[in-house]
Amino acid sequence: MSKKRKQKFPYLIGSKWTAKQKTWGWRHFQVINRKNHGKWIFAEMVASCDSQTRFWLNASQLKDDSLWLSGWKTLQETEQLENSNDINYFSY
Fold it and tell me: First and final CA of the chain: distance in angstroms?
């Protein structure tokens, strides 16, 4: 009897992300497609304000909080998160 493998990134499609730096001129993206390629999982991203701006990226990059934040964040929220991370980083 074969065991079912746990799917990586089960809620990827439809998830929303904020890029820490402008990417293709935008910061807010949504995952519209996924592709499993061997052990790699790729996400097709589309800019929330421009449906013509699309690209694929390795979904594991979305876990890197120096590149991406989950959900759509304002610049102010992004800066506040940066500042709170700096404080936590330097507290002993």
Answer: 50
Average the pLDDT over each of 29-38, 63-72, 82-91 and give the range with the smallest value: 82-91
Rounded CA-CA distance 56/42 in Å is: 6
**Alpha carbon distance 3, 85 (integer Å):** 40
| Nearest in space to 31 (alpha carbons), one of 8, 74, 62, 75 | 62
| Contact call for residues 70 and 49 (beta carbons, < 8 A) | no
Helix (H, G, I), strand (E, B), or coil: what is residue 64?
Answer: coil
Cα distance between residue 42 and residue 54, in whole Å: 13
pTM: 0.80
Measured distance CA(70)–CA(17) in Å, rounded: 5
